[in-house]
Amino acid sequence: MRPHHTAAQHLAGEVPTPVRDATILRALHSRCIAAARWLTRQMENRRSRLALLEMTDEQLKDIGLSRGQAYSEFRRRW
Predict the structure, then answer these.
(1) Cα dist. 9→4, 12, 40, 46, 70 in Å?
(2) Sign, Cα dihedral of 22, 23, 29, 33
């Protein structure tokens, strides 16, 4: 970038490129972390719901669920 453009950006109140790039990278990193956490929660929910389907009727009764409730929970999405 030419020196006079940098001065014009500074006068216009724009953030210099290195700082702006670092901010964008931090924001991207935060979004990636949030997406990974969301995906982890979804996978855990799916594992739990599959475990409900694998339980016997007696085991479901012990935790206070019926077979129909287990199927309903399995069909739930997000």
Answers:
(1) 9, 5, 42, 50, 60
(2) positive
Secondary structure of the chain in HEC code, one letter for each residue: CCHHHHHHHHHCCCCCHHHHHHHHHHHHHHHHHHHHHHHHHHHHHHHHHHHHHHCCHHHHHHCCCCHHHHHHHHHCCC
50-67 confidence digits (pLDDT tens): 999 999 999 999 999 999
Contact status, residue 19 vs residue 44, Cβ threshold 8 Å: no
For 12, the token pair is: 């216009």
Number of Cβ atoms within 10 Å of the Cβ of 70 = 20
The crossing angle, in degrees rounded to 10, of helices 67-75 and 17-54 is: 160
pTM: 0.62
